[in-house]
Design brief:
Rossmann fold, N-(1-d-carboxylethyl)-l-norvaline Dehydrogenase, domain 2, 2 domains, ten-stranded mixed β-sheet, 10 strands, 19% strand
């Protein structure tokens, strides 16, 4: 397959590198110091699942130089979605599919608005990975799973082709027959994990072991489930309990990427995570006090570390 990856961060960098190393034609669209490092030294992925070194790797800041591809993978931060979809246009031909592996639940509609439902796939990436330094991706733990699906839930040749490519690359992947449900199931977990690790500045292991922070985690999850069900998403009523059980089996040191952004003083995806839950709850008449508390606690950091924020003393 000829694949374009919009955003070569933790998600796009890890999965794109695995696909490229297995022989797929992968083009990374990146910018800044990360792009410069990739063009000079290639892309390195450090992972318990096996390190990957792409040298050279195909990285550019000019999507027009790539030309039409079979699949565009959107893997940028949520605030860059519209820009990424616009920039991807030179790579979208008559038979190109576009899929988002971002956080949140709004990307499918954004893709369909830009390129039509016939080119739109739904996707989910479950992984903890970040840019450790320009040109280097660090994967925490071993979880690295992709889900993809047609909006109507039917099997298709393009989802099968992508699944086959993932299998060849050693990527755990599946085709979902209800991709909206799959997207929301991740959203329930991600909203809570992002909220609690960012609020406490601690990993999930510590959070799940304390009865009070565990209870708040479940409350946040339950509110997201209620909002999803109000939007007619086919979520199980006991999903929050199931996700807490799953959380108990995850590495203690696991954190959400939003905590990394908070610690580095970067912009936060809060408006699309707990903030998005609050806004949807208001529209649907669903109470979301737990998520509202998270928004209030973190909102001053949404656009990065405030100028007057205190830094810890050594």
């Amino acid at each position: 397959m000829k694949i374009a990856v919009m955003g070569a961060g933790g998600v796009g960098g890890y999965f794109g590198a695995k696909l490229a190393a297995s022989g797929e034609e992968v083009h990374f669209i990146a910018r800044g110091a990360h792009l410069e490092a990739m063009q000079k030294n290639g892309l390195q992925v450090l992972s318990a699942n096996g390190d990957v070194q792409l040298k050279p790797g195909s990285a550019t800041g000019d999507p027009a130089s790539v030309g039409p591809v079979d699949l565009v993978m959107i893997a940028v931060k949520l605030w860059s979605t519209e820009d990424a979809l616009r920039d991807a246009r030179p790579m979208v031909g008559p038979n190109t599919a576009v899929v988002s592996f971002q956080n949140g639940v709004v990307a499918v509609d954004a893709i369909a608005k830009q390129y039509g439902k016939e080119r739109t796939l739904g996707g989910v990436a479950n992984i903890a990975a970040v840019i450790e330094r320009p040109g280097v991706i660090r994967h925490t733990g071993t979880m690295a799973i992709l889900s993809i699906g047609e909006l109507d839930g039917k099997p298709s040749s393009r989802t099968k082709t992508f699944l086959d490519a993932c299998t060849k690359a050693g990527i755990q992947a599946r085709v979902s027959d209800d991709i909206q449900k799959t997207i929301w199931e991740k959203y329930v977990f991600l909203v809570a994990a992002s909220a609690m690790t960012s609020l406490t500045r601690l990993p999930l292991g510590t959070i799940r072991e304390d009865p009070d922070t565990r209870a708040l985690t479940k409350q946040i999850m339950s509110e997201v489930v209620a909002v999803g069900k109000a939007k007619a998403v086919n979520l199980d009523s006991d999903l929050a309990d199931k996700l807490l059980e799953r959380l108990d089996g995850m590495p203690r040191e696991m954190v959400a990427s939003m905590l990394g952004d908070l610690e580095r003083g970067n912009r936060l995806e809060l408006p699309w995570l707990s903030g998005g839950v609050v806004e949807m709850g208001k529209q649907l008449g669903v109470a979301t006090p737990g998520n509202g508390f998270i928004v209030a606690a973190l909102k001053l950091y949404i656009n990065g570390r405030p100028a007057d924020a205190r830094t810890p003393k050594a």
